[in-house]
Amino acid sequence: MTLDPIAVFRTHTGASDTQIKDLTTFLSMLTEANEVMNLVGPDSIPDFWNRHAWDSAQLLALAPEALTWADLGAGAGFPGVVLAILLKDRPDAHVWLIDSLGKRCRFLDQVVEALDLPATVVNGRAEEQDVEVDIVTARAVAPMEKLLAYAQPYFQHGAQGLFLKGEKAEAELKEAAKVWHFNSDLSVSRSDPRGRIVHIRSLRRVR
Questions:
Q1: Residues that bind S-adenosyl-L-methionine, according to the entry (predicted)?
Q2: Phi, psi at residue 17, to the nearest 5°?
Q3: pTM of the prediction?
């Protein structure tokens, strides 16, 4: 028997009817936009609820008190748009969706406006922004060594990092340790056992 992916997502996250409606609208907008620009692999859209929505949403359980997030290289909106939808009703919650490509930012602006999300889209380079957040995050942006360079300004403002990575996360951390000192934990993704979540609590460059 095939399980209903929305029901599975609701079981994992406790998402409300309103949140499911917003995510369904987001899926529709993503599907339409993906026909004219490469936001996500088209083969991944049928698995939206696990591969994209649950993959993103699992971060909230790792930082349940965090209200402010910065999604670097926000792209199609993962994890940032999903986080903004699930944080929508929490007072003072806000997500910065930061991307250097204008057409992706225009798509994100449309989603934020349509869903009335507590989010700000920033068209610019991640490392050049002056934003104070609880958590800085990213998915499929760059190897850890380069990603930490993008994220360093946010750590300087007191952020911690939660980064969605693949099977090579441990090897990437070893390479990054040649350039950065950091305190990190590595956990298995709940949406895909091949994935990893890197939690970084402190960061400074090796002198």
A1: 73, 78, 126-127, 139
A2: -60, -40
A3: 0.96
